[in-house]
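S.,

Sequence below, as promised.
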Amino acid sequence: MSTLEQMYQQVIMDHAREAHGRGLVEVTLPAHGESHQVNTTCGDEVTLRVGLEGDRIASLSWEGQGCSISQASVSALSELLDGESIATADDTVEAFRALMQSKGEHLDEEREDLLGDATAFVGVGKYPARIKCALLGWMAFRDALIQARSASEGGQQ
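The prediction came back faster than expected:
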């Protein structure tokens, strides 16, 4: 294993051990959403809540259980996106999806900079069965964000 791969593995394990954003927080903002996602292949699951203030993610919390990849990935997501603009969040989610589809190849520097610690998941793209684990929290985030946007536009939850 290369030094870079060892570093990436350590980042993932650190996020799995000391998860950022873990612990569902009650969202009192009118524009909010919640999504519960389950990976039926392995049983990993996550519930994620998002609250919006204008075009910013003002609240992001989650609770889940599963393998270190799924839990570390949603931790990295939480660290990256809490407090960010919706536009940055959308770009970051798309960059992570591209990373998972890259089959272990690195992305361009701009997208990797956007991903921060989440770049450590590049090796997961080599293992199709693990991609679902890594994407679980990101799909929950995307779904919760859609709900929050709908609420902010006066739609029904």
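Strands lie at 31-38, 45-53, 56-65.

Coffee later?
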